[in-house]
Amino acid sequence: MRYQITGKQIDIGEALQTHVKTELGSVIEKYAQRPTDAQVTFSKSAHEHVCEATIHLSTGLTTTAKGKATEIYAAFDACAEKMDKQLRRYKRRLKSHHQVRAQPVEVSGASSYILAADEGDDEPESLNPVIVAEMQTKIPSLSVGEAVMQMEIAGAPVLVFKNEKGGGVNVVYRREDGNVGWIDPVTGT
């Protein structure tokens, strides 16, 4: 497993890095048992330490957790516990996808933009929004079931993916009534 352990304006020592690799490795080994990438970022917010972890599983799923505490080790432990809960919750689904999927999920590159929020109730002067940031993102090629599971694991309200069955770009989203919506555009009529 590849680890990227960083600190935002915090010095991360070797002992903490070793602790992160050991604890996170044991959590992943229990549930995924496949090579993965892990990104762990430590920061400080007022008097609390914050630990954010993102793990990319070889099945294409991404899980994210965040922990806060007054001590940096306790913040990581809270984050790892949340990660453990998420993976435990989806253990059966993850196992069945490991057996079906022999190859890692294919991903396509795409541009992602953050647009400035409208200020006030005034009419906009133009219909061209102000771009605040531009980033590269990846669109995974998944089945609809895998996309729903990915969205739930990540705790995201929406997920854009390339449908393995039809090949087109699809969207799954959490509806206000608690159900999951699926947008599957009609191709070539």
From TrEMBL:
An example Gene Ontology molecular-function term: ribosomal small subunit binding
The Sigma 54 modulation/S30EA ribosomal protein C-terminal domain, residue ranges: 128-181
Keyword check for Cytoplasm: yes
The entry's keywords: Cytoplasm, Translation regulation
SUPFAM superfamilies: Ribosome binding protein Y (YfiA homologue)
Subcellular location: Cytoplasm
GO biological process: negative regulation of translational elongation
GO cellular component annotations of the record: cytosolic small ribosomal subunit
Pfam families found in the cross-reference section: Ribosom_S30AE_C (PF16321), Ribosomal_S30AE (PF02482)
Gene3D superfamilies referenced in this protein's UniProt entry, alphabetically: Ribosome hibernation promotion factor-like, Sigma 54 modulation/S30EA ribosomal protein, C-terminal domain
HAMAP family in the record: HPF
Assembly and binders: Interacts with 100S ribosomes.
The family this protein is said to belong to: Belongs to the HPF/YfiA ribosome-associated protein family. Long HPF subfamily.
Function: Required for dimerization of active 70S ribosomes into 100S ribosomes in stationary phase; 100S ribosomes are translationally inactive and sometimes present during exponential growth.
Name listed for the protein in its UniProt record: Ribosome hibernation promoting factor
